Amino acid sequence: MEPATIILFGATGDLAKRKIYPALYNMFLDGKLPQPFSLIGLGRREWTDESFQANVEKSIKLFSRREPADPDTIMSFIGAFRYRVLDVGREEDYRKLLEQVEKRERELGIPQNRLFYLSVGPELFEPIALQIRGSGLGTSNGWKRLVIEKPFGHDLESARRLNQTLSQAFAEQEIYRIDHYLGKPIVQRLESLQQAHPAFYELWVDRQIANVQITANESVGVEERAGYYDHVGAIKDMFQNHMLQLLMMTAVHIPKDSGNGKGRSKKTKVMEALEPLQKETLRNRVIRGQYTEGVIKGDFAAGYKSEPGIAPNSMNDTFIAAKLQIANDDWRGVPFYLRTGKRLKEKSTRIVVEFQGASEPVGEESHSPNLLVLELSPKESITLQLHSRKQGRSETFQPIELDLGANPMNAPEAYENLIWDALRGDATFFAHWNEVELSWQWVTPILEAFAENEAPLLPYAAGTYGPAAADALLEADGFHWWFDDKLDREDRQDQNSDRKEGIRYAYHTNH
Ligand code: NAP
Q1: Are 352 and 483 in contact (CB under 8 A)?
Q2: Mean pLDDT, to the nearest integer, of 118-129?
Q3: Is residue 316 part of a domain?
Q4: Are residue 236 and residue 123 in the same domain, yes or no?
Q5: What average pLDDT does the segment 225-229 reach?
Q6: Local structure of 458: helix, strand or coil
Q7: Nearest atom in ligand 1 to 44's CA
Q8: I want to staple 462 with a disulfide (CB 3.0 to 4.6 A). Which of 52, 301, 373, 506 is the partner?
Q9: Most confident of 69-73, 126-130, 504-508
Q10: In this structure, are residues 473 and 321 in contact, taking their beta carbons and an 8 Å threshold?
Q11: Which range of residues forms the domain containing residue 479?
Q12: Does the beta carbon of 142 lie inside 6 Å of ligand 1?
């Protein structure tokens, strides 16, 4: 890895404190930072180098996955940090920044490789990119890269505008759009799972999959993000980016001989093949919900409209479930069910691949299909659930779990993987513009339907798994969400009367 300077906009902010400094620190301990390493932090606050370094040290102590090392190690890490006051709108601040960056590069004797990390609100992305170009910061003898946080636009048009502006300063291969779900170790192992295990690869390509379920449930509410969340909802906050990225990662068939970049182009192909929805008919395929008051793990939880900072008549979605179809030879006819929401019964992010059921009845539990289960959070593991005859010559079958590898304790976190990749110039686990554009395009009819109330906003009690209509989505096809608590499903049936007519409720016995 070549030495480089990280130029961090938003160095005084929450993301830097919680994620970026702890990630850099752990990379430092693992020998994954360039040597020598240099970081210049920027913000409007009147910090000095010393107060900046003290803040970085504090954040490591609070948020690092590892205990802080001895004082000498900490000192040699934070010694690489410098701070400069910069107001995004002030042109002369960039000129002074350039002087400081060049001075540091000379002092350290490092090439002019510059990684611009924009850990600031999205309204600042465009002015910063243009100033980087205009000030000469982006013109150097070394490489330049732009790391950008979400959200990338708030609809198709704004995303296109943003991309157009960024591309005046950076080429596509220089832009690293963070979707931190792509940095999660289990997601990064999806590819190797297919490639290292021929049996899996064959299952993936040989139409042995009955359906795929992707869940990203949260038990928390809007927390301190009410003002932002009430304008975006689950559809823009989670679905358009993280959920569709997880779908692409699961659906992509990466040829064994693929090199850097092939996986990305294959992901774009998945998005291109995603069957479009029509605004008028999507109510059968997309369920949207908003939580009402309820109880989560014994504690009372207020309804969404009563949360501080939320409009009392808000029509914002806090839950989305959808059935998606990929119209290509690999996946035609295999439904992908996605759901995400807030104030649900438990926090869980997982991908379940349900394989086709046994063709011949084999005992009482013959209908229990085999599952590949990827748990992304709170625990991280990959298991294959099979059914095996109970001891002896019993006719009954019982599920057994094959552990395909839990994530080791203290494994690198998403931000460590992503920053490391960006420093090495590997964009595999970042969102390409084509994927972002196609994702916005795909959700546009949903956004329109929501805006025009074409899709009903269904209430669900906090502490459940969302509106029962989200179950009916699968039940209509003879499936059900795996790993939802059975009792809760029965309770919810009583509580909710929003189920679609004509779809029979039946939970299966294989929980
Ligand atoms: P934040 O805590 O509000 O921090 C914003 C940063 O921007 C501060 O360092 C602030 O510095 C700086 N800033 C604001 N206006 C500025 C200006 N005019 N000139 C120079 N600097 C300015 O926000 P955050 O939570 O860190 O989020 C940063 C980005 O990460 C956002 O795009 C967000 O969507 C994304 N993100 C955050 C999280 C998270 O967990 N926090 C997770 C995923 C994505 P001063 O106050 O010193 O001016």
Answers
A1: yes
A2: 97
A3: yes
A4: no
A5: 92
A6: strand
A7: 48
A8: 301
A9: 126-130
A10: yes
A11: 183-492
A12: no
